[in-house]
Design goal:
Layout lengths: L5 E6 L2 E6 L10 H16 L5 E6 L3 E3 L15 H20 L5 E5 L2 E3 L1 H7 L3 E5 L3 E3 L13 H9 L1 H10 L3 E2 H7 L4 E3 L1 H16 L3 H14 L4 H16 L2 H11 L10
The chain binds ligand LHQ.
Length: 263
Amino acid sequence: MSEPAVLYAAEGGVATLTMNRPEVLNALNDGLLTGLREGLARAKADDTVRALLLTGAGRGFCAGADLAAGAGMPQAGPRDVAQSLRERYHPIILAMRQFPKPIVGAVNGVAAGAGMSLALACDIVLAGESASFLQAFTRIGLVPDCGSTWFLPRMVGDVRARALVMLADKIGSADALQYGLVWKVYADDQLLPEAMATAMKMAQMPTRAYDLIKQGLSVSSGNGLGDQLEVEALLQGLAMATEDHKEGVTAFLKKRPAQFKGR
Ligand code: LHQ
């Protein structure tokens, strides 16, 4: 039997999804897209999982849509392509952004096209020194998809977003760090241990507050300050009703470390 296109492993409160088509730099075919959707759903449903780690097997993170499997080929009309994106890709990007637990991306190699969008959809993006980022779309006459035109201007500003998507130059981890696409860069052999340590730390944190933070951040760019203050007030009311808030305050007053349960 062939290996699954996405490997799933759960340990220490962290579920790891490893895109697993290393021979094509984890290009996205149906099996890999299904594996991502199923892995996200499984990690969401498992209460013992309180953080997710996304990475790629081999020397790539994800090379975007599998061009050899017919993605983007002209036999598909505009409606078919849009429908394919809606049905196969958008649910993954939305599930990541709406995932009620933190997602750490460990970008171990090239992240191209929709593979770069996947990296940008993570909450904390960590990269290995030899990681690279490529808005590959215009190289094959396409436009960015899977959220890249939404993520990039917000992350790096309009000047850099336009240059990245129009020039389609591959940038390395040092530039990605300088532009603000990634949080930290590690030596290649330290990336996975560091990413796992980050995810495990986050798995010990107040999970409900993380969910509420993600909800607040996801609406902030469409809101004026007054509306966002209102969103924060509502979210704070919900956070204050959690067991973890009570535990955090009790631990502070008793001068001991908090033991958050994610409730
Ligand atoms: C690949 C791929 C790949 C198949 C490397 N597919 N085999 C579009 C259409 C419709 C709906 C959905 O959404 C999208 C969004 C998109 O994602 S469009 C963008 C698709 N991705 C690309 O255009 C990137 C294509 N790949 C590359 O430009 C290069 O492979 C990069 C820069 C990623 C890496 O270059 P190298 O490190 O030099 O590796 P390589 O090119 O030698 O690739 C290694 C192998 O992986 C190779 O196979 P081979 O049999 O020759 O060893 C490639 O053919 C294969 N591969 N990307 N997307």
